[in-house]
Write a structure and sequence with these properties.
5 helices; flat; single chain; mainly alpha; 138 residues; 70% helix
């Protein structure tokens, strides 16, 4: 009977080979999904409340706060739902995530910079309309 057990393991039919392709920490538990869900709800409800209640009077400050909450929520989603960390796939998925974040920051900040300067340099200003009215005077 011991020969049957050894021959079974010798052919690679043991139960341990099913876990070889899964790395530790690659799957979330029900508790971790619930933590991620709770954080996502909180990180959505707070900016919604800030806008609807008008707590922050300054629109620029409100936009910055909402963008900060959005950035934190993206990180929560990547950790709790996409299971991205330094242990999965030898750290390569984490490095790919960091490259993606850097590229997104460059693209978004560059777009905001271009739009700001287009607005500042292309849109007519109030002082230009006053100069236009002065040139029409006799």
């Amino acid at each position: 009977m011991s020969d049957a057990v050894h021959s079974h393991d010798a052919h690679g039919h043991g139960h341990d080979h099913h876990d070889d392709h899964h790395e530790e920490g690659s799957h979330g538990s029900f508790g971790s999904y619930m933590i991620g869900f709770g954080l996502s709800v909180i990180l959505t409800a707070i900016p919604f409340w800030l806008v609807m209640s008008g707590v922050l009077v300054n629109p620029q400050l409100t936009g910055i706060v909402i963008m900060a909450f959005a950035a934190v929520q993206v990180i929560v989603h990547m950790i709790y739902f996409l299971h991205m960390n330094t242990r999965v796939e030898g750290g390569w998925s984490f490095m790919a995530m960091m490259l993606t974040i850097v590229l997104v920051v460059i693209v978004l900040s560059g777009s905001m910079w271009v739009m700001f300067h287009l607005n500042a340099n292309m849109m007519p200003h109030a002082d230009m309309s006053a100069m236009h009215n002065m040139s029409e005077m006799p």
